[in-house]
Design goal:
With 362 residues, this protein is α/β, with parallel strands linked by helices. It folds into two domains: 1-108 and 260-362, Isopropylmalate Dehydrogenase (3-Layer(aba) Sandwich), CATH 3.40.718; 139-256, Response regulator (Rossmann fold, 3-Layer(aba) Sandwich). 40% of the residues lie in helices and 22% in strands. It is built from twelve helices and twelve strands. The chain has helices at 14-33, 46-52, 58-66, 89-99, 123-126, 166-182, 197-210, 223-232, 244-255, 301-313, 318-333, 352-361; strands at residues 5-11, 38-41, 69-74, 104-110, 130-136, 144-152, 155-161, 186-191, 217-222, 239-242, 265-272, 278-284. The strands form two sheets. It has a ten-stranded mixed beta sheet with strand order 2-1-3-12-11-4-5-10-8-9, with helices on both faces. Bound molecules: 1,4-dihydronicotinamide adenine dinucleotide and magnesium ion (MG). Magnesium ion binds at residues 248, 252. InterPro entries: IsoCit/isopropylmalate_DH_CS, IsoPropMal-DH-like_dom, Isopropylmalate_DH. It is found in: Cytoplasm.
Length: 362
Amino acid sequence: MSNPSLLILPGDGIGAEVMAEVQRVIGWFGDKRGLAFDVSEDLVGGAAYDAHGTPLHDDTMARAQEVDAVLLGAVGGPKYDDLDFSVKPERGLLRLRKEMDLFANLRPAQCFDALADFSSLKKDIVAGLDIMIVRELTSGSYFGEPRGIFEEDGQRVGINTQRYTEAEIDRVARSAFELARRRNGKVCSMEKANVMESGILWREVVTAVHKDYADVELSHMYADNGAMQLVRAPKQFDVILTDNLFGDILSDCAAMLTGSLGMLPSASLGAPMENGRPKALYEPVHGSAPDIMGQGKANPIACILSFAMALRYSFDQGTEAARLETAIEGVLADGVRTGDLLGDANTTAVSTSGMTDAILAK
Ligand code: NAI
Ligand code: MG
């Protein structure tokens, strides 16, 4: 049997710097754990534009459709700000998401105890927090028709349409239930079925899909109450399933329960491929951070945690993912900090590669 395949797209700025660290982590798993991947590397974003005049070459797009998982750093930077919209670095990322049809966006909110002081909430409310928001990414209010600004009775009207088909709700609900099975077996679905028909349909379809996942516990919550519960007692949740608009807001809110942008991984999943694995793109939430690029200051943890998500959700290596996460937790507990995590004056910052050294040693 051939090794699972990974396409690495470092991109621009610190994207390339943190991805170099992930390559070391991948190498470690090959050497020490016998976990070998067929790794190929290619260009995306500004780097691809510089080489090919397009932020994503067709050959790269085709390769992304074939591999078991894509790992992306970040795209963009001031150098590309004046480019025409059609070739902007972001277009490369958007094309990947669209053509791979990645409809389930996974954003974990995980609080490492050593960083609990970074949270805006009290330490005991967030310490040990580990929840996952599954946001529908390809439909809903950001895509529904009609949309636009129209003239009506002598004044302008702005219109967006919250629209979901049964099939769209069904497939993202399945992603959430599958995830819950690999986690703590609970899904809380959030909509506004009290005031929105799309919410009524959402609740009906999720309830119907749940029949295929009777081992997972399902609850429903109105999204506004969900927002309150997220900041009141976030540890009550395991997987939160929600639509594109509510998920945009709830996932940003949940992310900030845990502190720094340099710590936040994400995954976007699509339909299962022939081998049963979902199409998948893993990437840190942060951008290319031009203000710190080339200085060895970037925190590689968000990107390394994105690889841990790939281990768990694409490659059925939950134990190895936990091994990596435990090492990161241990390193943070030891007080190892990149600059973005410097909360107090007693610690000094390690470099990007220094952080990886510590994680691999642990
Ligand atoms: P950013 O996420 O790149 O940076 C925001 C702030 O957080 C900066 O001060 C940066 O130094 C810091 N930061 C981010 N990641 C860090 C890390 N790993 N370690 C330490 N500090 C970190 O967002 P910004 O500045 O708004 O955008 C910069 C460029 O990145 C723009 O061209 C933007 O379009 C692009 N971008 C790309 C994204 C992607 O590829 N998914 C997402 C967000 C922005
Ligand atoms: Mg947002």
